[in-house]
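worker-03 picked up job from queue 'complexes'. Input manifest follows; four sequence lines, order preserved.
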Amino acid sequence: MKPWDGIISEDEQRAYRAAGFGRPSGLGQRPALLIIDVQYRTVGTKPMPFWDSIKEFPTSCGDVGWNAVGNIKKLVDLFRARKWPILYPHVAPKVAHEGGRLAEKVPQIMNIAAHGYNFVEEIAPQPGDILVPKKHPSAFFATALASHLIDLSVDTLIVTGCTTSGCVRGSVVDGFSLNFRVSVPMECVYDRSRVSHAVNLFDMSEKYADVLPLDELLKKLDGLSPRQS
Amino acid sequence: MKPWDGIISEDEQRAYRAAGFGRPSGLGQRPALLIIDVQYRTVGTKPMPFWDSIKEFPTSCGDVGWNAVGNIKKLVDLFRARKWPILYPHVAPKVAHEGGRLAEKVPQIMNIAAHGYNFVEEIAPQPGDILVPKKHPSAFFATALASHLIDLSVDTLIVTGCTTSGCVRGSVVDGFSLNFRVSVPMECVYDRSRVSHAVNLFDMSEKYADVLPLDELLKKLDGLSPRQS
Amino acid sequence: MKPWDGIISEDEQRAYRAAGFGRPSGLGQRPALLIIDVQYRTVGTKPMPFWDSIKEFPTSCGDVGWNAVGNIKKLVDLFRARKWPILYPHVAPKVAHEGGRLAEKVPQIMNIAAHGYNFVEEIAPQPGDILVPKKHPSAFFATALASHLIDLSVDTLIVTGCTTSGCVRGSVVDGFSLNFRVSVPMECVYDRSRVSHAVNLFDMSEKYADVLPLDELLKKLDGLSPRQS
Amino acid sequence: MKPWDGIISEDEQRAYRAAGFGRPSGLGQRPALLIIDVQYRTVGTKPMPFWDSIKEFPTSCGDVGWNAVGNIKKLVDLFRARKWPILYPHVAPKVAHEGGRLAEKVPQIMNIAAHGYNFVEEIAPQPGDILVPKKHPSAFFATALASHLIDLSVDTLIVTGCTTSGCVRGSVVDGFSLNFRVSVPMECVYDRSRVSHAVNLFDMSEKYADVLPLDELLKKLDGLSPRQS
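worker-03 finished. Artifact:
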C-alpha cells in the first residue's frame, strides 16, 4: 500500500508502468542526511491539530510535522552513530525588501515571529553539522549545498523535512539533476495537504527518487559498509 | 471551477487560504514564451488515445498533448505578432554513457527513436526563436536559459508544454526562484496522469505562479503596451 | 595610458586586436552597483602602507584599498541620488568545519578577527541596500545575486571592490556569462599585487567588460535617462 | 623557477606569502581530466608561429598551443590506461542571434569556419569520453559538467587546454568553488599572451589550484591506488 493508492488511480499507475517510469535508484556508499526546514514555524512549538497550530504560525503543518520529527530522529541517531554528515537547509528570517516573487505569492511568510525560525530541539543541529541557509524552495538554489556535498564526497541523499510539495520536492529534483542518488523516507516528510503530499511522493517515486518506508531505509543504510576515508 | 477542485478537498484548499498562500504574481512588461518538450515523443505523430499513442512512443501523453498543441498555437501567434521572444527548451537525443540517474529511474527514455525528438510542426521553432537543449527536468538546470532571458530583458515567463508534473513544474520553480513572474495557462500544459496534472497545477498556483485559463491570459497579454527597446 | 601598458607588451596587445577582442559592451538602461568585500579585513581600520596594514589583517591590501574607497564613494553618491540599486556581496565570518578547498589554499582566511568583517563605514550599506553574503570568489556563486538583479530588472553591472584578481574578476566573468553589461571603473577596484591587478584589468577589458576611468563612467551614468518603473 | 618569476616581483610574491596564500590543495583519490577547447580554432590546423596562425583562425594561439597538445597527450595516455574519466568542455559553433555579450566583446568569434570546431586529432575524444558543449568561459557555467563529475564520484580535476586567462581560469575558479581539488599542469595550458598566461597561473596557484610541472603531476597521479568501484 503506497501513500498515493486511491488517489492516483490504478489505471494511471499502469500508464507510468507502461512508459517505463519508477525504477529504483538505490543507495550509493556515502550518504548524507538533509533535514529541510524543520523549524517551529513549520510544526508549531508543540504538537497540535492543524487548525489549532496555524493560529500560532500560519505556516505550520501541525501534528503531521511532529510525527515526522519523531521519525527523522531515528535517522539522526543512525547518522550520528555512523559519523555520516547531516545538513540543515533552512529558511533564515526574511528581510522586507528582499521578498521578490515569494513576498507576492505568500505575503504572510514575510511576517513570521523570530522564534519560529529556531530548529526543533529534538533533532536540532549539533556542532559539526552543516547549516545551509536558503531563500528559495530548493536547498540547492543559491546555496553552497552542492559544494558541501562534493567536499564530503557524498553520493547519496536522504531527504527529510517539509513541505513534501515545496522544498522537499524542489531539493529532490535538483539532487536528482546533479546525479546524486536520492531516497525519501515517506514518514519523514510532511505537508499541509494530504493529497498534495501523496501525489508529490508519487511524482518523486516515478521520476526522481526512491520513496520508501523508513524501516526499509534504516535497514538498507545499516547494511552499508563503514565509510572509507 | 479549477482543475484541482474535487481532487484537493475544499478543506485542504481552506488550509492554504488560512496559511496565506496563492496570491497573484501578475504579469510584468516584457514576457517570453517557453514551449517545453513539445516533440513527437511526448504527443505521438498524430492525435491518438493514450493507450494507443504509447505504442508509438512509450513517453507519449497522447490526445491531451494534441489539445495543448492547439492552445499553445494561439500564444505562438500572439507572440509572433508582437515580436516577443519564444524559447524552446527541449530534450536532445540521449547518449548512452551520459545517462546518470535518469537512465536508472526511466531506462526506456534512453531508447526513443530519433524522429521522436523533432518539434511538433504546428508550433515548431522559426528562425529567430531560441533553442535551449536540456538534459534535466528544469529548463534552467545546466542551460543558458537564464542568460538568454537576461539578454532579452525578460521579466515574465509564460510556461507551456509538458509534462505538468515534470519539466513544466521544475522550470516554474526555478523561474520563480530567479524572480521572474511566471504564468501557466492551464490548457497549454499536459501530462499522462490527470490527477498528478491537477495537483501540480494546484501546487504551482499556491506557491510559484499564476495558473489561469488561456483566454484570460491572452487578454492580459494583449493589453500589455508595446515593448520599449 | 592603460594600467596594463608596460606590463602587457605592445606586441601582445596587438595580438588581441588581431584576434578581434576588446570591443565595448556599453551601458544598458538599468544599472546596479556592486561593492564587493569592502570590509576592514581588506583595507585595515585606517589607511596604512601595505606592509604595516597586513600586521592588522593579513588579508589587507592597505593604502590602495583606501584610495578605492574614496572613489567608490562617488559612485555611491550618484546611485543614491538616482535611487539605483546598490548591492554588497561580502564574506561572512567563517565557520571552521565549512572550510573546504579555501581552508586548504589560504588557511589564515579562517582566522580573521570578527570586526574585520564590518563594512567600511564611508560606503557602508544603508537601509534598502541589498546584502549578499557569499563564501566563494564570485558574487554569483551560491548566492541569490542573480535573483535580486532579475527582480530589480537590472541590465548593467558596475563592479567595484576587491580583489581585482579574485572576487572582482570572478564576479565579472559570471556577470558577463549571464549577459549583463559589465563595467569596471579602474580606480574603484584594488588588489595586493600591482601586476596581477593590471593584468586582470587587461583580461577583463579584452574579454568580459568595459574597463574605464571613473570620471568617464560617472559621465556616462549621469547621462542615463531616469529609470522607468 | 615559476612561469611568473620576473613578471610578479619578488616583493609582491612575498606579500602573498605574508597574507598566507598559496598552500597546496593536493590530489584526492578519483581524478578526472578536463581538456578545454582544444579545437583547431585555438591552435590552427598545424603548428605555426602566432602571427601566421591567426591568418587561418583569428582565435588561434599558434605554436604554444601545439606544444600543449603534445603534453596533454601524456595525460590522456595515463588516464586511458587507468580508465579514469576524460571530459571535453568545448565551444559548439555559434548561432547568430544567440550571441549576447560575447558577440559584442569579440565579434569575430561569431564567424569561425566550421572545421575550426573539430577537436585536435592527437587528443580527440574516444567512445566513452564525455563531451560538454558550452557557450561561456567556465566549463561549469550552464553545462552538465558538475552532474557528470558527481555521477563519476570525481574529487579531483586536472585542468588542461585554453586559454589560460579565459576558459581555463574560469573553470578552475568554479571547480574550486565546488570544492573539487584542482591541479593545473603548467605546460598543458596555453594562451595568446605570455604575460597574461603567467599571471593567471600565478593567480590560480595562490588562490585556487596547484599549478605544477607536468612531470611532477604525472608522478603523483601514477602513485594513486586503483580506483575503488
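worker-03 released lock.
Chain A touches chain B through 58 residues (CB under 8 Å).
Chain A has one domain: 29-117+130-222.
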